[in-house]
Write a structure and sequence with these properties.
The chain has about 425 residues and is an alpha/beta fold. It is built from 14 helices and 15 strands. Strands 6-5-4-7-12-9-13 form a 7-stranded mixed sheet. A 3-stranded antiparallel sheet has the order 1-3-2. Strands 8-15-14 form a 3-stranded mixed sheet. α7 links the parallel β4 and β5. The chain is elongated and about 135 Å long.
Amino acid sequence: MILLSSFDAIDTYRKLLKRPFDFSYVIVDVTTLYFETSASSPDLRHGIHQALARALIPTDADQHHSCIGKLQTLQSSTSTSTTSLFQAPKNEITMKTSKSDRRRFIISSFFFICFLCALASINELRFDSLLKFGRCALTKINSPSEIYKSSSSTLIETQKTSSEDEIRVLFGILTLPDQYQRRHFLRLIYGTQNPVGAKVDVKFVFCNLTKEDQKVLVALEIMRYNDIIILNCQENMNKGKTYTYFSSLPEIFNDTDGVYPPYHYVMKADDDAYFRLQSLVDSLKPLPREDLYYGYVIPCPSMDPYVHYMSGMGYLISWDIVEWIRDSDIPKNQLEGPEDKVFGEWIRYGHRAKNRFNAKWGMYNFPEPPTRCTHELWPETIAVHLLKTQEKWIRTLKYFNVTDNLKPSKLYHIP
């Protein structure tokens, strides 16, 4: 044990820290510093005492001898006496330090546990969701078909939701089985139109095939385009083909897993009429989706859709009237005659189509030769009828700039 008589010994103490010995603790009062060292080397302890003596012993002779005596006394003290002298204070400080550390540890642990509880409470739902997700993932890893079914089901639900406000139109073009070139041409006409706000399915409609070449060529068309409806009837114009067309549709599109109705509207159109699908859709948007009869009023000078009937160039009805045609006896008992006029009589006798729309003069016949049913080509056009020649088709298509969307390419040069 080393006794220092002044605070000036602090500098010496700092210097001694650089030496290889350990200090267990330090007790400081106003005038005295005590250092306890565990240095095991006698030479080291002797060197420390000598350094302290040189640093602390005053120049006055009396004080010099007094300090030397104190240092010698301390140097000759046994470890037993040193231990007995400072054992009590050391134990007291150790106990106080231990209690303080214990208190800090308990408080810290308490707050840490509270933090964990709060975190667990806040994230409880997330943990549960994560656990369920993990279980689901492990289950589906062993069953890829379930993943496909789930994704397909989600896609179907999304499509159903997104299509609720979208107008669905079945656009049936009545033609003949042998009209291959006309069908290919019309596929170009309607395949390049993409109306916004509606789903328009264009189908070519004719009766049973009667020739061997038809069975091959029409089958190839179906395999390639899937846009043909073959009715169970003998080919005719005014002997029930229109009735067979409308009355067959509920059974053809009877999909219990699909949306209802499969189509809001059904169009019957001639293959010599050009329809601008976006204009058609825009004219349908504000109209009712039930009990509707839409088209070009006949006779040509008439503007009242409730007096006569709609021209056979193309007329449209809502799906509920399609189902009525299938179920009612009125159409079944009157099949022969000009098909558009006969259809008007069905509607009148059955008291159907309370909602009617005259699309004149958005629909009209080609301007040449001029008649009471013709009109000049103009931007508000929905349909042009009687395009009997290639020249009339080209004039009509050029007027409406149908090739404006052609993109430039190095593959071709069209002036």
